[in-house]
From TrEMBL:
Name the UniProt record assigns to this protein: Fructoselysine 6-kinase
EC class: transferase
One GO MF term: transferase activity
Keyword terms: Kinase, Transferase
Length: 270
């Protein structure tokens, strides 16, 4: 397997799973993708911000433990982001409350942008940057993707300049098809959309690929979409076909559904 240099830019948070789980784990869109790519054997660098608090130190230490480089992690005055999560009887999660903490004001520094430009691929999670990172990467000629279905203001979620636009349409094939068309019409080179129980699809406007889901015993779906993105990038950046990349994504997502949280870690009590 080829080993690539990935950078993941954006959010992190402490996922606080409410009773009956009663545990907290480190997560967030960007961090989940970063850790999953590291678990797949790549050199991964995380670009984001945490507070100068216990949760910030915990996040930094866990990323290092999971072989994600934290050279560009900013430690800022303020609170590390957190999310309160309710779990249904079927294993689905409900985001009851989100506080983005210092992530709300995070932007890469000029030194960070210089480092990002040298990566094989940059993926963007939740970030309030008005599209700055994706445009700077495009100007530098760096391969870049973004998850545009995160809970964010639309001013931060354009797809122009993206090599890959990732979205989520729920179990609605018509909505997924329309979303992919919008992505391509708006400037993305490749559109990739998950469809819940209906699987996933990807198209570059010429080739369309689709795949179903893997049947698994679901412990928790938190981070499954992020894991799908990591699995897809793992195969696609190495030159895999759209179908191969979708299959890689669903396999990674299925593994994540087998445990609580976006990646394996020792939880802490609330």
């Amino acid at each position: 397997m080829s080993r690539y240099r990935f950078a993941v830019v954006g959010d992190n948070c402490v996922d606080r799973f409410q009773l009956p789980v009663g545990q907290s784990l480190i997560g967030g869109n960007a961090i989940n993708v970063a850790v999953q790519l590291a678990m797949l054997g790549h050199a991964v660098f995380y670009f984001g911000a945490v507070g100068r608090d216990a949760d910030g130190a915990r996040t930094r230490d866990l990323l290092a433990e999971m072989d994600v480089r934290v050279d560009h992690l900013q430690m800022l005055d303020g609170e590390t982001a957190y999310t309160n999560i309710d779990i249904t009887e079927t294993g689905d999660r409900i985001f009851a409350h989100e506080d983005f903490g210092v992530c709300q004001n995070y932007l890469p520094s000029e030194d960070d942008f210089a480092a990002l430009a040298g990566m094989d691929h940059v993926h963007i999670g939740w970030i309030a940057d008005r599209g700055l990172v994706r445009r700077r990467m495009a100007e530098a000629g760096t391969s870049v993707s973004q998850d545009v279905s995160v809970n964010n203001d639309q001013m931060h979620l354009g797809v122009d300049s993206l090599r890959i636009a990732f979205g989520s349409a729920g179990e609605n094939r018509e909505k997924a098809d329309a979303m992919m068309k919008v992505f391509l019409d708006s400037g993305a080179k490749l559109a990739v959309v998950t469809r819940g129980g209906e699987g996933s699809a990807a198209t570059d406007g010429t080739v369309l690929a689709e795949t179903g889901i893997l049947a698994v015993d679901v412990a928790d779906t938190t981070g499954a979409g992020d894991s799908f993105i990591a699995g897809f990038l793992h195969a696609y950046i190495a030159g895999g076909s759209l179908e191969t990349s979708l299959v890689s994504g669903r396999e990674c997502a299925a593994r994540t559904c087998g445990h609580v949280g976006g990646f394996p870690q020792k939880p802490q009590p609330l």
